[in-house]
Design a protein that fits this description.
Layout lengths: L13 H34 L4 H14 L3 H11 L9 H26 L3 H9 L4 H31 L11 H12 L2 H30 L5
Length: about 220
């Protein structure tokens, strides 16, 4: 039994694949920027003196890190409407990715902050800097430099995990691949091309984020 592959048959469907790829890129960009910002805020709260906000944020981090992303997504899509909060598939996908990356980046950034020498805090205090100025100008930059490769890897993991949002009919790359496969029945060809697109996106994203790190943080990764 022989099997012939027909990649040429996918040519008419490239606009759909590229549209899905662009949606994935847009979703990932928003989630990366927002998720890292959430992580910085969370790391600041978790690195300070124990308090109510620190405890609440810690509970949020543990909840997200110990539950599947698909369950988080389904809760936002199907659970929140029961409370009267209705979201589009795109809004739900973005919120799920923000919440997920925010939790993981909180712990990654906090790890970089915890190894900061105490002398940095003391020197900033002697210079008359406020706590917020000390954190943003003295502690955070070297902390980000230390953990930047791990943070980049986590952002890529979240990007790859975005394929799950196809389950709620959000028209990103995997959704389009499934749609094309259902029309053409070219399973191998469709998912082989989709795999290559995700691989290309991962490599480009890594190089872009590392270049940003070298420019703004002086990271050597």
């Amino acid at each position: 039994m022989t099997t012939s592959l027909d990649f040429a048959a996918l040519w008419p469907y490239w606009p759909e694949l590229l549209a899905g790829l662009w949606t994935t890129v847009t979703l990932t960009t928003l989630a990366t920027v927002g998720g890292v910002a959430i992580g910085i805020v969370g790391a600041a709260l978790r690195s300070g003196k124990p308090g109510v906000m620190s405890a609440i944020w810690g509970a949020y981090v543990e909840l997200i890190r110990n539950t599947p992303f698909v369950v988080q997504l389904f809760f936002i899509v199907f659970g929140l409407p029961s409370l009267g909060l209705k979201l589009t598939a795109g809004e739900a996908a973005l919120i799920a990715m923000l919440v997920n990356l925010g939790a993981y980046s909180t712990e990654i950034i906090r790890a970089g902050i915890q190894v900061a020498p105490k002398g940095q805090w003391e020197a900033a205090r002697v210079l008359g800097l406020s706590k917020s100025q000390t954190f943003l100008r003295v502690i955070l930059p070297p902390a980000l430099k230390r953990i930047y490769p791990a943070l980049v890897s986590q952002c890529i993991i979240v990007m790859l995990g975005s394929s799950v949002v196809s389950q709620v009919s959000y028209e990103e790359l995997t959704f389009m691949a499934n749609l094309i496969q259902s029309r053409t029945f070219l399973s191998f060809e469709v998912y082989f091309v989709t795999t290559l697109l995700y691989l290309m996106l991962s490599l480009l994203m890594r190089q872009l984020l590392l270049a940003i790190g070298r420019k703004w943080l002086g990271s050597e990764a």
